Predict the structure.
Amino acid sequence: MNPKLISRIEDTNLVLGVAVTAVAGLVWGLGGMLAAGVGAVLGATNFWALHRVGSGVVRRVMEGSAPGQAGLLVMLLMAKMGVLFACVWVAVFLLDLAALPFTLGISVFVVSIFGASLTPAPLIAAEEASKTHG
């Protein structure tokens, strides 16, 4: 995947995460700000992990690796999702963070991906692309 596009999504995650956290603080007070901030950090971390593990799966398949190796990475993706679900459960039920601001915070990464897909992808040189994919 285009590293400039990934970088743009990660930067957008940061900007939107801060904005949503600030707005949640104005609307719901300190508790809402904390919930939105935790959600935004969790969403950004999820995107980071998804990209790292997902690109590993794609790279191994493109290299023609044994099916077991790619399968292991797919299992890592499933484990990542289980960890995400556990973190959400802990945040909402054990830490008793406000659900609505938390949801807005964790949704930031989805909005970042959508927003980045609406703008033209940054171009990378052929040499740079071969470095990232080979």
About this structure: The two ends are 12 Å apart (CA to CA). Helices lie at 3-62, 67-94, 99-106, 108-118, 126-133.
